[in-house]
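Our consortium's second objective concerns turning raw sequence data into structural hypotheses that experimental partners can test. To show how far this objective has progressed, the report includes one record in full. It was chosen at random from the queue rather than selected for favorable results. The single chain below, 321 residues long, was entered without modification.
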Amino acid sequence: MMAGLSPVALPAVKDRALQDIYVTANGIRLHCITQGRGELVMFLHGFPEFSYEWKDQLQEFGRDHRVVAPDLRGYNLSDKPPSVDDYRVPVLLEDIRSLADHLRKGRKFILVGHDWGGALAWSFAAAHPEYLDKLVIINAPYPAVFGKLLASDPVQQKASQYMFMFRSPQAEEKLAANNYALLSKIVLGDLLKTGAMTEEDQKAYVQAWSQPGALTGGLNYYRASRLGPPAPAEVEAQIGPSDSEFGHETAQAVIRVPTLVIWGEKDPALPLENLDGLQPYVPHLTIKRIPEGSHWVIHEKPAEVNGYIRAFITVGGDRRG
């Protein structure tokens, strides 16, 4: 199904070559932004973003690739199943596989992910290496390394306290209050101050968060995975134990495809220790650090991010961090 470019999709993008499409995958309808021809590159966004997150990458790589950025299930214009179980990791991975089967025409593709999208990309690469040519991860921890840090590292545990709130029944009310003031502060506050994002961008995010069921859909990723550090007894009584299912089957798997990890070093939620110990799990690994980048490095340093991706997918990159 093809439609005109929705104002909720990419209002700040002026490149009319971009199209929005709807694809039925794994029994639900996913909204995607797409452009170009050639090898498929799929971009997976994180929380609380949506396909708009990748606007700079879509324009850059759409010049010589078929680029696709879906709104993951629960977000923006994609379907939002009501049950928390509808957001378990195996279900989300099947969304990606089904969408890829619709688009890739039997060929391998490049998968790029950030935050939750990066976590899914790690797990997809572990479960379905035969689908991928290359993997690109941006500020998203490898499940095995992250799980160890959540269980035993005080710095990561402190940085991940927000997960308790995201899993709580009060999360929607707190994040949506005053026209999504808290959510805007978390994601957009510093980006607006530095000019990395504009008021037009902010309107696009608020529109996406305001879609019926969208905020709950995004939060259900945390609830379904039970992701978080060990919870105090009073918190556990409210939200359940932090016993993440994230990659129970694939968390220890070796990633068999060439992988680029781009890391904004000023990420308050993901300390640099998440880069330690990756090599045994990712033997074909390239790490590129961006010292002045935060968790939102895609928006802060788009040219640098694009340059690293371009070099990697063109010639495979080098192994220097």
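The partners drew two points from this record. The chain is about 40% helix and 15% strand. Residues 1-7, 317-321 have pLDDT under 50 and may be disordered. Both points have been shared with the crystallography group to help prioritize constructs.
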